[in-house]
């Protein structure tokens, strides 16, 4: 090469190399040189043409188009190269061979067909004509094609959906590869075809039109890949030729064939010339296209570049696998688009898979290892998975490449909720911890210690890892993560049992108590995973259908674990029966048994041993989790489908008989001694009652009539007021189970009238007891009574008779107003409470934090139980007003529950829901009047908080104004009536006391249709005197503001305004539409955040001044009065639809159904998906020079100093 091509060594595709021996079927070793009418080059190699060089003159063919003979339209056969490739009906090699034949006959016609092929593949309808190409530069031709581009659609062949276009992309790439492969012996060296194609693609890749840029970049990268393959073949043949030459030259003079030496020298020279030519072509593509397009504004284009450079480095590592090319992949690891980062990682995986390439990757690994490790936490899971796999490959190649900190960053991902991430991390953990042992040494050690499995040390290591991870409650996640990579180890239940049962031999460390608990938990999790063959809860999208092979594996594993643990479980229970945690875990195992094995394998003696151990556990423990585990085990073993049922049922009945006799006796003693009862008497009752309650949950114990004694305990506690709270809680729960089992028996059979009357009497008496317990001094008793009341009211509601069960009508209970009021007051007193201790001690110990979380969980359950009563119309909907008004103050704790309640109640009755919303605002307004008096400071944080809550409520009505028009109109009607309800005692010239409420009501004006605004305004005027409309003082501003919001055209509704003299925080909604979302967020935070936080402090629990039970408003709710509003019932009116459509188009603010956010974090969450999709797309009008100046900020900072050549920048 001349000096011009040798400058910038790091830029040049330096094929350091060697060429090859090959037959030249077409040119006999000779190449066509020069073009017609042009002087031959004066130097050995001719530099590539720049993209702005004038194109080669081409002729438009007649009778052929794009290298395929036309058929005059007969039969509809394709007539262009684009159509042939798109349809893909012909073999690609035959299509290319036809084009080559056309090129040999008239290369101008063939090249023009190829040029138009690239133009049409870009989706352009224009055609390059011979006159254009003869008289125009490349840039002018591309500009002309740009003008003829179809701008109506943004789609083009590479982006069009459907299988046809997906196949087209494949055919397009295959055509280019086959074209180069078939032309590699002569045509690509004629300095005509390749010059033309590369010049065209370079120009198109610099176009402002995305379709041209995308298509040409893909074509150029595939062209480069094909040329790299040609260069690799030349290198191989050159090596062969060189060896032949050396061998011949080293022969003795008499045996040396000089003619053969001359032929080998000539062949080597030709191969070197071909190599130089290919090197020139690749440099032109790389410097003219790749170095600009790998940082293109479009992610798909960047991804194409990175994907192909990975192919080049793997295919021809001697030339491309060096720092000059790896730096582009390293920089692009910082790309903001996940698909580009994904291509980078996959390209690197292909390199790190080959261990022979590790020495060449060492410097790259040191430089970019930290970035790769950090990508294991990528926000896009696909990228994170591939990053973990890449780190695993790096670990396999060199364990020293990763530090302990790097490994720990990957370890914790085994607990990820996203299963592919966790499985990839499990593979890494397996490679790091469980694959470095010596199998022979382990087996020899196991034999010396008398054990059947050599995995003892590995299981110990797994236990230590589990304990050190400090995420003990997630053992199931750890097992699931390792299941695919370490399944053999995790199914070694014999080894696990040996470690738990056998005494350690001399020189072996004993398992500590924590290690034993962890190993039992891990064992149970492995059993569950094998028996159920699906991930634990929280992983995956649900149970998938198992393949035949997976199903067979599941059955085999279940049989294996059953046969082993049938014998081992009684021994394990015997050893650990005093430890409640271990026993509770071990008792989970029988639910995964194949119980037929007991009878089929004649293992009844092991069943008796198991039942004996369970009985001992029941008698020894009173912990709830242990007793529930025992009860569940009895329930499973008593299944009627198994022959062992009778044996188990006898054992269970004996146990229940003993416990009920003991319970009846202890209750009698406790009630007789009354206040003189000692701790032993209380313990005897409590311990037996706990056991019976746990068993009553899963077993029908109605024949033992536990309800009677439980009811006696509750009545005695209410009358005497001295019943221990734990006994009261357990008695309530046991009575509840008894009622439910009685209901089950009645619904499954044909109950008599006496049965229904008896059950109704029981339920009625129990509901009365629960209602009395709501005033108990002990909080646990009150909470238990509240939850059971809510559950029973749900069960025995009007839904009980649905589904053809009208005969159960006597069992339906409807709560009276007194009970509803007590339930509501309980929620207000025990759920919506201020926790000052939480705000004061934010840095408490972990136990305190756990207690706070548990307390919050209980309060959420209480609120959810009451909300269900509202949703299912058991408690009157207006009761929800006292819930809705706390939405913003308690958003972090209960926002999701309140929002769901609002959504469900709206589905039940839109109008009544709207009345409830306005009622909640009225209650807050009345509370404010009581605190501040009739002269409200409308600029205060309290008023701003009510207005903000109203605005959030308004957002929940969504965009479909036709569906919500009646509800919104009713809301305005009630609001107007409330505002003018009480006249000012000082006289009619003063504003009504509640007039300021119109400022809150104006937040809903934007949800009215235009014609409804006029109707509501007319209704408003009925309450206004003539003097009111003329008043302009500050105290009348709420009325002025509300009227303005109704008088506007509906496109731009004004927000409430305040006097300039009285407030500097007033705001008016812009007539040009709402501000962009990100600006709006800042404005809302500045105006609302502080004010509402003040409201959070000063708004105390309401005293129900506007109580929904005692107001005349209830009459309005019942009769749904719509007097004075002219509703338009027709929902198909075209004008109305156009009005709504116009509002949707003009409204720049995104409105989401049921979106009620109240802080910066929530607003950002609401719009997160919009931000993610608007990351880097630069304006399409910028040309390449401008884009080069606006370097994307998603690359490493080193990329910012890259010079114009693209290669001379140091990488490290």
From TrEMBL:
GO terms for molecular function: chromatin binding. Residues 254-284 form a coiled coil. Residues 1056-1068 have a biased composition (Low complexity). It is found in: Nucleus; Chromosome; Chromosome, Centromere. SUPFAM superfamilies: ARM repeat. Residues 1-75, 1051-1085 are annotated as: Disordered. InterPro entries: ARM-type_fold, Cohesin_Scc3/SA, HEAT_SCC3-SA, SCD, STAG. It comes from the Eukaryota. Residues 1069-1080 have a biased composition (Basic residues). Its main location: nucleus. Residues 290-375 form the SCD domain. Keywords: Cell cycle, Cell division, Chromosome, Chromosome partition, Coiled coil, Nucleus. Residues 1-19 have a biased composition (Polar residues). Component of cohesin complex, a complex required for the cohesion of sister chromatids after DNA replication. The cohesin complex apparently forms a large proteinaceous ring within which sister chromatids can be trapped. At anaphase, the complex is cleaved and dissociates from chromatin, allowing sister chromatids to segregate. Part of the cohesin complex which is composed of a heterodimer between a SMC1 protein (SMC1A or SMC1B) and SMC3, which are attached via their hinge domain, and RAD21 which link them at their heads, and one STAG protein. Belongs to the SCC3 family. This is Cohesin subunit SA. It comes from Myripristis murdjan. The lineage of its organism: Eukaryota, Metazoa, Chordata, Craniata, Vertebrata.
